[in-house]
Amino acid sequence: MQLLRVENLSVTYHSSSGPLSIVERLSLKMDEGEILGVIGESGSGKSVFALSIMGLLSTKMVMRADYLNLDGEDLMKMSAMDRAVYVASKAAIIFQEPQASLNPCFTVSSQLDETLSIHQGGTRKNRRVRALELLDSVGITKPEILLKLYPHQLSGGMNQRVAIAMALACKPRLLIADEPTTALDVTIQAQILELLVNLSQSEKAGLMLITHDFALLSENTDRIGVIYSGQLMEHAATENILNSPRHPYTRALLDSVPQLGDRHVKGSRLFALQGQIPAMDQLPVGCRLGPRCPKAEKQCVNKPELLSVENHGKVRCHLAKPSPTVKKPLEQEEQ
Amino acid sequence: MHLLEAQNLSKCYNLRNYQFGKTARLEAIKNISFTLDAGQTLAIVGESGSGKSTLARQIIGIEAPTNGRVVFNGEELNYKNKKHRKLRFKNIRMIFQNPYESLNPQARVGSTLEEVLLINTQLSAKQRKRKIEETLTKVGLLPEHQYRYPYMFSGGQRQRIAIARAIILDPKIIIADEPLSALDVSIQAQILNLMQELQEQMKISYLFISHDLNVVEHIADNVMVMFHGEVVELGSIEHIYDDPQHPYTQALFASTPMYRRRFPDFAQPQFSKRKGVGEEGCCFAKRCQYCQSHCEQEAPPLLSDQNGHEIACFNVNSDQKQAS
Which residues cross the membrane (chain A) (predicted)? Predict the structure, then answer.
């Protein structure tokens, strides 16, 4: 069953010098139990996209979408209050830095209890039992002791587990993990990732993994969306993306990470994209990757569309040959 | 003769007020020995808190080690000797992790770079300016960038400035403390390429501190794996990446997605416990699945096999003895 359907979601930031489009007409779909990877550099708008689904954007940002369907209801048709309540019961988000996403002034028990009393209610005793269950499900061995501790007494990995337990309190259908392992140690990273994947499998919930590390996505995800500068550049099944990426940006991202067994040889260099991601108020004409793209041609000064490519997925590039039969633009040019 | 040699380096910190006014001694690094040759890269791998940065601080001379010696070009470097300090600051330079914090936001790039020359050389103003321009071009920036402030640059460019500051004195050794982890993936490749280019041009040796196993495999000649202030495995890149022996090294590979496929048999560590302050035994005992009773009482020595692959583990070392 379809869990999430986003059509043409745009986020505009009203800065002092005028409106800036941070996410531009992004369309995605997720099924139940699916794990979707979203990858992009910092500043590409991947976190803003996650926040806009959760309705956590700052007041200076405005979201518009043709359709934002979460578990059978269209969020765009709801009032702001209804929407907040509905999203909170259906979706949860885990942030990058566990130390920063927990309140340092309160114990783990009071923070978990607050979430539980909002979502579940019931007596204090029942809530405590549920809190212990939750902590147990995220792999904490002695939850009774942990409940009395403050976040600063716990390690980063433990804090992230608590944050995940809090996210699970509302039994979410959609779990968004925004760089959940970036702030953690290598050995802990693997454990947290495995935990997230197992939880989403056992609960049949959708998991959206947002990251900048292809290695993390390569094992677990079903599909991957590549975001650059607020646009979806490529969206396809994981094997297709990893084995035969059609977009030069995806290719570059994959090539700029040293390959397995790639030892130090004199004169050997990694492939590196030149330059950096453009600022949102200084976007290039045409394709946004244009000035950095190693394969750029004359036609790249025209805006490429996100088109379907046969046996692959969707690609936004003039050079990826779209199949002639399905040549149907998925987005209309803005009038 | 080796370019740099560390012999039995140890550093103890006295913790006052450790638990309710009790004092304790924390051994941040313990008996670390290694050598580094000209033009080579030694990578130091380990999780946070394993003493990688403390080791770097002892080598560069910010702190005096409690025990042990740092030998540079055959000469022991004394922490208090002024002449040795000057020699050290000229030849051993450092690149820090976060270029957003390691550059002075109030100083123009030119004056940040000039300060290094003012302190360490007797160049005239004109020569200094020429040197700054040369160095900026070397790291892929433009000479006119010296008049700008750090906030005008992106993360990758700032890391280039930090590298320029490190190479401006033509040092022999650069200590790079996680130079890539604050940068974006596509920028990481640029900086890594630049570092390799400089190494080949200027014959610099790197002490490359990182926790990214991919990057280490790409750049390093030798690898030293640290855990809890001790060296658990030390060897050439072939030793460590083709035949990792110590349980911790194996656990590191098992928890990195790309390497899990190469080493499917290695187990991930189940716990994240560590040895407490002042406890005896092997540093990895509490997490190790092969842990036996004597591992908790006695620390295994770092022993070398015939090929110079050093491992600190009772199980591995006794197996090898039996085999030979």
Answer: none
